[in-house]
Amino acid sequence: MTEGGARARIETLRRDITEHNRRYYEEAAPTISDREYDQLYRELAELEKKYPEFVREDSPTRRVGGQPLKQFAQVTHRVPMLSLDNTYSVEELTEFYARITRLLPQEKIPVVIEPKVDGVAVSMLYENGEVRYAATRGDGAVGDDITQNILTIRSLPRRLKGKAPAVLEVRGEVFMDKHGFEKLNAGRAEQGLPAFANPRNAAAGSLKQLDPALVAKRPLGIIFYGTGAVEGVKLEKHSDLFPLLDGFGLPHSERIWSASSADTIIKAIQELDKVRHDFRYQTDGAVVKVDSFAQRERLGFTSKSPRWAIAFKYEAERVQTRLHDILVQVGRTGVLTPVAALDPVLVSGSTVGRATLHNEEEIARKDIRIGDTVIIEKAGEVIPAVVEVRKDLRTGSEKKFRMSKKCPECGSAVVKDAAQVAVRCVNAQCPAQVRRRIEHFASRSAMDIEGLGEMMVTQLVKAGLVQNVAQIYTLDAAKLSQLERTGEKSIRNLLEAIERSKTRPLWRLIFGLGILHVGETSSRELADHFQSIEALMNASANELQRIPDVGEVVGTSIHQFFQEPHNRELVTRLKKAGVKPTVESRKKSDLAIGGTTWVITGTLTQPRDEIAEIIIARGGKVSGSVSKKTNYVLAGDEAGSKLEKAKKLGVKIIDEKEFRRLLESSS
Three-class SS of residue 440? Predict the structure, then answer.
C-alpha cells in the first residue's frame, strides 16, 4: 500500500468507526456485528502503527467509548473506565498469557476468569455506604449521570450492608433479563413499536430514558466485576472482591474460575461456554484478569487498555439458508408483522424455519428480498433474525417486498400511524385479531385453558363458533363434535378445562382481556387493589394512575379500554357465562413461605410457573437467579448451574417432596 493509499484508508476507517461508535454508544442501535467492528478497529490500529505520521489525537484508537448525552448531567470518573483488548482466537489468548509471563519472568501469575456480560458498562460511587451517583462509561473519563434510572433496579442496594468503606467506586454491567426481553419485545410488537434487536440494546435504550418510572418497568439487572476509587478497605487480589461484594449486598457473576496457565485458562472458558446459556443475562465471552493487584500495577496500561486483562469473545453461530417467502402475521391489536419463511436450518441447537423481520423499514434498510440467500443468527441468543444478505449470490430473480395496502387476513384497509413504524389492520373483527385475542385469553399465563391452542382456536373461529372470548363458555359437546379431529375424550377434556377456568384468579382474567400495556405484574397489582372486575371497570383514570406498577401510560390505557361499550359488554357476557374469578388473599402470615425468596430449577412434576404461583400466593417471592438473599432453591431433575451456586453459597436446597411437605405444614 502506498502512503497515499494508507492515509486514505486510515481516514475512511476513522470515519466509519466513529459512526459505528455513535450508533453503538449513543443510539444503542449498531448496524454491524461486534466481530466486524473489531476487524475494522484492528485494521486501523495496525495501519496507524505502520504509519505513525498519520496518527491523530482524535482517532478512535485513542478513545474508549461514545460522547455523553446532552440530556443528562455529566460525571467525571474518579478513575478512568478503560475498555479491554479482545480476541476471538484461542491462539491470541495463549499469546496474552505468554506476554504477561515474559513481562513478569519467574513469577507465578494466577488469573481470574469471569463471564463477559453483554450489557451497558456503568460505574457507581458509594460514600460511607450511601449511593452518591451512577454513571455510564461515556468516553472513559466523563459519563452520563444515570443515578435515578439505576436506582430502579431492584437487586441494587441504595445503602451497602455491613461496615461500608468511606469510598467505594464499583464497576459493572447493566443487563436485561433474557426472559423479560422476550416479553418486552412481544409487548412492543403489539403496540406497533419497533422491536429491540437484542437484550444489550434494550438495556441501553432503557438507561437513556429521561423518565425513571418507565425504566422501572423494564426487567433490568446489574452485575459488578471491579472497582475504581476505593478508600477505607484494602484489597490485594481481585478474587478478594467477590466476598466483599457479597457482604455489601452487591450482585456479581454467579460463576468465577481461577487459572494459572494458558491451558487452564482455555479449559475455564470452555466450561463457561457450556453453562453460560443458563444465566439469566446474555454473555458473549469471558474476561481474563490477573488476580494480584501488585502484579497488575507492574504490568501497567497501554493508552487505551490494561495489559493485565483481555476479553475472549465466543463466535456467534451463524448459518446460511434461503429466504423463500416473506409472510405477514396479524397480531391481536391488528399490527402487521413481516416474517421470513426460511428453508429449515439448525442454529444454536434448534431448527429455525421462521425469523422476525420486524417491519417494512427494517426490510428496506437491509435490502432483504424474497429468494435471497441470507445469514441467520439467534439475536441475543433469543430470537432468530436475518443479519445479512448474500447479495453476491443473487441471480436477478429475487423480488422486493412491499407491504400490502390491505390486511392479508380480512382484506380491510390498513393504516400506518405517523408516530410509529407499525402498519395496522383497522378491522377489530379481523379473524386473525380474533384468533390472537382468544389464544392470549386461553394461554397458560392468562386463563390457562388447556386444549385451546392455536389449531383449535383456528378451527373454532373458522367455523363461526367463537368470535370473542365470552363465546368460549358457550361451547358444548355438540358444537365441538362438528370440528375435525375432535374425539369424545378431547372434547370432554377441553370442556373440563373451560369449566375450571371460570374460577381462575382475578389477575389472570385482567391479563387475559388483553388491555394494551397491561402485563402480568400490573394485573396482579390491579387485582390486589380493586378486588373485583367491576371496581376496576369503574375506576377513574386518576385512581388507576396512582397504583404502583401502573402509572400514567398504563392507567390511561385501562381507562380507555373500559370506556369502550363493547369491552364492558364483553365483561358482562363473561359474568353471565359463569366466570367468577377468585380474589387471592396472600398469606402474609404463612410462616413457612411468607417473606421468603425462592429459585426454581430443574424438571419437576408440575410446571415451574404453577409452582411459582403457589409460592407467590402464600406471600413468597420467586427469583430467576441464586444469591445470598435466596432462602430456598427448589431443585428438580437435571438442575444445573443454579444448584451449584446454591451449594456454594450455602442456600437451603429442597426437593419437590420436601416442598409439598412444607406446603402441608403451613396450610
Answer: helix
Domains along the chain?
3-62 (1.10.287.610), 74-313 (3.30.470.30), 318-402 (2.40.50.140), 431-576 (1.10.150.20), 597-665 (3.40.50.10190)
Burial 323-362 (b: 16+ CB within 10 A, else e): beebebbbbbbbbbbbebebeeeebbeeebeebbbbbbeb
Residue for grid cell 373461529:
461
Task: Write phi, then psi, for 417 (nearest 5 degrees).
Answer: -70, 130
Give the list of residues 6+ apart from residue 139 with CB closer than 8 angstroms, or none. 63, 64, 65, 66, 67, 68
> What local confidence, expressed as pLDDT, does residue 587 receive?
46
At 64 the pLDDT is: 64
Distance between CA 478 and CA 451 in Å, rounded? 17
**For position 19, what pLDDT does the model report?**
80
This prediction has a pTM of: 0.58
Residue-level pLDDT at 210: 81
8 A C-beta contact, residue 193 and residue 422:
yes
Positions in the chain short of pLDDT 50: 587-589
Q: From CA 81, how far away is CA 91, in angstroms rounded?
A: 27
Other CB atoms within 10 A of residue 468 CB = 16
| Residues carrying an active site annotation | 116
CB 212 within 8 A of CB 149: yes
